[in-house]
Amino acid sequence: MAELTPQEFLDKVLKPEKESDHICWDCKHLKPVIEGSKFPPADLIGYCMKIHWPFFWGVADFNVVKKCYAFESKKVAK
Ligand code: SF4
Asked: How many domains are there within the chain?
């Protein structure tokens, strides 16, 4: 069995609450709302930690991000 990177491990154990077309899912700056979480507003898929730093930007479900100047892939070459 192949070893997981830290990011792959997090993706496996922290399942997001939603699925959508956001490019943010593949971006290392998104902290997704975790499955079963009751705290955040229902329209959020997660929080971007890059845009508006040092504040978090709530990424809304209804306003799909298709392109982003600050996108950085969370996939690392093996
Ligand atoms: S940097 Fe851009 S692509 Fe990455 S999570 Fe933030 S808004 Fe989404």
From this structure: 1
Q: pTM of the full predicted structure?
A: 0.83
Residues with CB under 6 A from ligand 1: 23-24, 27, 29-30, 48, 50-51, 65, 68, 70-71
* Dist. CA 19–CA 61, nearest whole Å: 9
Residues in the chain: 78
Q: Which two structure tokens, joined as six digits, stand for 16?
A: 């997001």
Amino acid at 67: K
41-56 tens-digit pLDDT: 788 999 999 999 889 9
- Is 75 part of any domain? no
Q: How many CB atoms lie within 10 A of CB 26?
A: 12
